[in-house]
Each structure stands twice: as C-alpha cells, then as structure tokens.
Amino acid sequence: MPELPEVESVVRALAPALTGRSIKSVEVRNTSTVAGSPGRPAALAGRRIDSVARRGKYIRIHCDRNLGLAIHLRMTGWLGVKTAMELAAEADPYVRVLFHLHPLKEGAASQKEALVFRDIRKFGRVWCGPDPALDGLKALAKLGPDALAIEPAAFAERLRARRGRLKSLLLDQTFLAGLGNIYADEALHEARVHPLQEAQRLSNAKALALHAAGKGVLERACAAGGSSIDDYLHPDGTPGWFQRELKVYGREGEPCRRCGAKVRRVVVGQRGTWFCPKCQRKG
DNA sequence: ATCTATTCCTGGCTGC
DNA sequence: TGCAGCCAGGAATAGA
Question: Can you give the residue range of the structural domain that contains A123?
C-alpha cells in the first residue's frame, strides 16, 4: 500500500523522467479512475510538465498554463513510464489511464512514450484541471501538515488539541498527512506507545518520542524505497525493501523484535493494528 | 467532535 | 480441482 515513503519514491523516480516532457494525449481506459467532468483530461493535451511533487500521499504534477494533475494511488495504484515497444508488447488489463507524451527526439526507441497509471482494484483516482481547482479539492485543501515536515513542538501541540485513539488519529490525513496503516503501527511501536492510547492523555515526552519515531521510520523507509508488501513496486518495476525492517506490521503471533513478546493484532477503526503488548503500554 | 458502518474493487485465501 | 464466500484496506460519506 502506498504511503508517504512509497509515494515519495514514485515522485523521485518520475520527476526526472517527466520534467520537460509534453503531453500529447490522454487515454482514459477506465472512466471511474478519472474524477470530475469527462472532458478534463483532454485539456492537458499539448501541456508541458514542469514539476512532479508530493503532498501527503497525493502526487501533484504541474504543467504550463497552470494546468495539472493530482493522483492518489490508494491501494494498488502504480505509476510508471513505458516505451512504445513496452506498451505494444504487453496487453495489461489493469492499465486505467495513459498519458501519451510527445517524443523528445524522433526515432529514439529507448525513449518513454507514456506515463501509465495502472490499478488493479480501481480505488486510485486521477484529477485533471487548473492548479487552483486541484489545490482546492476538498481532500487536498483539508490535508494536515506533512508527516516529514512537521516540527516536534507543533506535533505535540496538535495532539493535545485532539481526542480519540492515537492509531485513528495518525491515520487521519487532516491531522497529519502521509502516514498509513504500516507506518502508523511502526511509529507507535518504536515510540513504545499503545495504539489505543487516548491522544489527549499522552505525556509531552511521549508525544515528542512519537514524533521522532514517526520521522525516523519514514526517513528510513524513504531511503529503502518504501515497503513492497501487497502490490507496491517502484515506477521501474523493482520492489522497495523496507518490509524487511518492519517490527510489528503484519507480524501477528511472531516475536517482538525488541522484547520477544508475541505481537498482537487488534482492529481499531476498521483497520488491522499490530503492536507489542509488552513494549507498548497505555499511560 | 468523534465514532461506526458502508461503499468502492479484485486477487488471494479458506473451507468444503 | 472447483467454487462460493470472505477478507484487506484509504478515503468519502452518512448516520449515531
């Protein structure tokens, strides 16, 4: 599942491949993947890609004339660039949207012909339109501070202002943008905080520890190219390797890598939640 | 404000 | 082997 580190990996790989390229046409193979009015994608034809960036788990592509894209990979979304030969050789039923690109040089076979949005479960979304409209999308406009950018004191202050269980709060993108199920569990484990801990009753020291743990986990995961657990792969098809570093996520019944106690799985807010009952206590 | 249930969707798993 | 039934899960949405 793409969370902040996975999306960051996608952006780092795509930025150099796409910047400066112009969109020739947009081929929508699954209409429900593209949000908003059906004519929107066509407006991107002829536009030059100026930058590729990340906001929380969203990918923002900016073009000239203040047009652009917002993309969310959700569960199984994948983005990559392919050559004309690669596209012709495979009949991939899961390709949902193709952004065909103008060639940089005529006749170069190695040149990427299209930006491909592939998505098995069709949960992913692509928005096209003017930048102000994209940034004004309810989900984007309400996004909380980025999990990698927020300062420790600001994080602790935000926590104090909220009620509810920490696990649910960490998954709330309006509270903090970028964390998902994997890294929320890993951050809580590293900070030795129980996922059901009431946010308001967390000590300032623990709040700062949670901030440091979250930032540390995210930075290490970014350096590892993210976690390839179910479907996630880099734009070039290679996997990330942070899944090998996971301490609790998906490890029900296995020994905690810190204390040896059996990792437990509970459901919090309809989300599978893994934690070590010995290391992580409510306080 | 916070919580829960529901919807979206499909591959992969379980159990018969 | 085949097949029905269930599950995961980010986020939007509705309702409590």
Answer: 4-131
Q: Which of helix, strand or coil describes residue A81? A: strand
Average confidence (pLDDT) over A44-68: 97
> Whose C1' is closest to the CA of A165: which nucleotide?
B2
- In chain A, the largest separation of any two C-alpha atoms, in whole Å, equals 65
Q: Name A45's Cβ contacts closer than 8 Å, sequence gap at least 6.
A: A23, A24, A25, A26
In a domain, A139, yes or no: no
d(CA A54, CA A58): 6
Active-site residue flag, A132? no
Task: Give catalytic status of residue A157 as yes or no.
Answer: no
How far CA A28 is from CA of A8, A56, A79, A128, in Å, comes to: 25, 25, 14, 12
In a domain, A140, yes or no: no
Can you give the distance from the CA of residue A57 to the C1' of nucleotide C10 in angstroms? 10
Distance A8 CA to B7 C1' (A): 28
* Catalytic pick among A47, A57, A158, A247: A57
Q: Residue A252 CA to nucleotide B15 C1', Å?
A: 22
Q: What total of structural domains would you count in chain A?
A: 2
DSSP tag of A178: S
Kindly report the CATH number assigned to the domain that includes residue A115.
3.20.190.10
Asked whether residue A169 falls in the same domain as residue A57, the answer is: no
Q: Rounded mean pLDDT of A126-135?
A: 94
Entry pTM: 0.96
The answer on pLDDT for A190 being more than 70 is: yes
